[in-house]
Amino acid sequence: MSRFFSPKYSSLTPYTPGEQPQERKYLKLNTNESPFPPSPLAQRLARDAAGDCQLYSDPECRALVNTAAESFGVEKENLLFTNGSDEILNFAFMAFCDSEHPAVFPNITYGFYPVFAELNKIPYEEIPLKDDFSIDINDYIGINKTIFIANPNAPTGIALSKADIEKIVASNPDNVVVVDEAYVDFGAESSVSLTKKYDNVLVCQTFSKSRSLAGARLGFGIGSKELINDLNTIKYSTNPYNINRMTMAAGIGALCDKEYFEKNCLKIAENREQTRRELQKLGFWVTDSKTNFIFAKSDKIGGKELYLSLKEKGVLIRHFETPLLKDYNRITVGSKEQMEEFIKTVREILEEKQ
Ligand code: PMP
What we know:
Blueprint: H1 7-10, E1 27-29, H2 40-50, H3 62-72, E2 79-82, H4 84-96, E3 103-106, H5 112-119, E4 124-127, E5 146-150, H6 162-170, E6 177-180, H7 194-197, E7 201-206, E8 219-222, H8 225-238, H9 245-256, H10 258-281, E9 284-286, E10 293-298, H11 303-312, E11 315-317, E12 329-332, H12 336-353
Parallel strand pairs: 1-11, 3-4, 3-5, 5-6, 6-7
Antiparallel strand pairs: 2-8, 7-8, 9-10, 10-12
């Protein structure tokens, strides 16, 4: 730490992103990326946009907003695009939380929430999940705090129904409920339609997973016009040109190529179910994930040991060395071939242990 670093931030423990190794080629199942490349249309539009990069991008993202409004069946004023969904989540912490509106989220969820709370000096509460790793919605009914719920949750993969989300939203009319739908396209129910009925719900989604654009950094929020205006105040006070031209073009391409998107989501869901069955056959306990990852543990091998053994054999998965998660691993669902390779390697490791 330099002697210039503000004490405001010096005690901050930053978020640890999953490994992005450059030194060796791994079968990479650790950061929930798509195994499929971006849609050919997204790639072509991004390439075309590269030639105009001497000009600033449109801070209002009009072309992208128009396409998305049609795609999601909402009005343009209900949408805000950000540099990955991490950015809109941070904006939501900044805009809707303070000491009178502390944040609340499950104790097992996306690891960035406590970091955003700490960064913005927001008090927060973490509510334990049930023993089966599901969220007890009763814990959030009328809680009178700004609620952050990843639905489906990460890294458990378990989803709540829209009806359950609605109960939480309806019972907290004076607080914002942020529903982080980063993984919703792989089999969960979206709460986007609730944004038309309630002015206190913000749904966040990303192009990083189901639309194969993790490296382009594109996320968005859908909410009432007033919530979006508030978030725009934060955006225009930090980085008005937060979406670059190539990403904006790629986003339009990804939305227009609906067939490619739907086909890929279906493949991932199929590969997930197949891998789940294979892991169960090998004795693993696996949650009912509705995402592009699997959350699993085995009595035959510890979480860290499996992670390290797989890494040695060239397969990367995500291990969280925290008291609540250390027995488990999170495995991104890749292509059919990748998952066959993964299962084969796990089987080898278990055999070698005998
Ligand atoms: N929410 C959840 C639950 C996530 O797992 C992630 C991915 N790490 C994000 C949001 C952020 O994704 P991105 O910034 O790539 O849109």
